[in-house]
């Protein structure tokens, strides 16, 4: 027998098998043929696998949206991945904002309060952008890749074996149908032999499929470890961002007069050193009941005298160390100045508690 004859016979056999399965499937749908049902355990495993696949896809896609909200950027990354090429490096949103702030600060003058503050904010935004890149990279490796490997690897294998099981089941039921229709003893014997063979093939394929499906429990355990890695990456990212912003807030605190005279400064005038943790934007709004001139004169009088004044706290403040006093908004404390003290700070007292407090958090009372 030559190769061509063999191929023709094989094609004919495959066509006959396909036709037999199609007829059996159609008759089952029409209720004209019996169907061998899978055992309950196998059905439960199949249902669990489908559920795992469905939710894994949804979680994976939404995680991608979370890490990269820009759909165009996601499409670009997908295309480069399929082409097995590295996507061009571009600034992310925090990095771009940071660069704009730095450029604006240099344009306005690093020696001005506003220019200096913009540069500090820009540098912090760029650090946040770098942390964002690290989160995306770590999450892609430790979380998204294992989920994608399951969808594109393990589940595809399960789908393939499940399809084979379906075909073996159709072959078995078609053989059973032919056995029922066989009238001649010789035909019945041949049909019985066919049923035994197809039953054995079906049982073997059911066992293979069952073993694969039972691996879903291991998949869940693996994905749980990956989920822990993802949460840890997010914790690291948010902790970094919080620390960056906390450091920035402390850098931006300054004596109000320095901020108020910002427009009168030349670009070469050094900015007053900043150490109090308050934002400049909040500073301008920190005087709801007294004028700027009244506050400035009041502070000057307090610093030049040895007396004390009552002051209302404008914002909550957490002490950075043991030398400072934590504050709660709207409480009233006693404040006074001591020789050699930084101009941005006063000494504050509340009962038997004492410590440095930032001036920008206070409103002096009459």
Describe, in plain words, how this protein is organized in 3D:
With 366 residues, this protein is α+β, with helices and mostly antiparallel strands. Helix content is 66%, strand content 7%. It is built from ten helices and five strands, in the order ααααααααααβββββ. The chain has helices spanning 3-29, 40-67, 71-82, 93-108, 113-181, 185-214, 216-252, 256-260, 280-284, 292-304, and strands spanning 308-313, 332-336, 345-350, 353-358, 362-364. A five-stranded antiparallel β-sheet has the order 4-3-2-1-5, with helices on one face. α1 packs across α5 (113-181) and α2 (40-67) runs antiparallel to α5. Residues 254-294 have low confidence and may be disordered.
Estimated radius of gyration: 37 Å
Give the low-pLDDT segments.
Answer: 254-294
Strand order, main sheet: write it out: 4-3-2-1-5
Q: How much beta, percentage-wise?
A: 5-15%
Q: How many individual helices?
A: 10
Give helix and strand order, one letter per element, not per position: HHHHHHHHHHEEEEE
Largest sheet features: 5 strands, antiparallel
Look at the helices and sheets and give the structural class: alpha+beta
The level of helicity is 55-70%
How many runs of DSSP E, i.e. beta strands? 5
Overall outline: elongated
Mean pLDDT: 82
Distance between the termini: 114 Å
Short description:
The protein is α+β, with helices and mostly antiparallel strands.
